[in-house]
Amino acid sequence: MPYSPSGLFPAERPSRPTYREPNPVSGPAVAAGATGTIAWLVVFGLLGRSLVGYAWWTLIAGALAWLAALVLVRFGDRGVATGIAIVTAGGWSIAAAAVAARWVISGDWPLW
């Protein structure tokens, strides 16, 4: 009588599926997103003629950049989106520090 395995311990292991990222994050893509966002924030920051203008323009430019990053995360290059998000957070931090410094010095909230 031929031996038939029960299936509890199969003789040959089934191959496991391998999953690959369709758009892997790469260093050059992060650098490209960061460089473009630095230029974007500088151009918008230069539109403001005072600290108040600079802060509001930076906030608006950062919000638009994050919208672009969200679209890129879903449909495009996640590395570029990462660079955009990192530099936007840094730009917002610089604007927040400038506003806080003015607030501490003058005692008056500068954005209203």
Automatic annotation (TrEMBL):
<keyword id="KW-0812">Transmembrane</keyword>
<protein>
    <submittedName>
        <fullName>Uncharacterized protein</fullName>
    </submittedName>
</protein>
<feature type="region of interest" description="Disordered">
    <location>
        <begin position="1"/>
        <end position="25"/>
    </location>
</feature>
<feature type="transmembrane region" description="Helical">
    <location>
        <begin position="25"/>
        <end position="48"/>
    </location>
</feature>
<keyword id="KW-1133">Transmembrane helix</keyword>
<feature type="transmembrane region" description="Helical">
    <location>
        <begin position="54"/>
        <end position="73"/>
    </location>
</feature>
<feature type="transmembrane region" description="Helical">
    <location>
        <begin position="80"/>
        <end position="105"/>
    </location>
</feature>
<keyword id="KW-0472">Membrane</keyword>
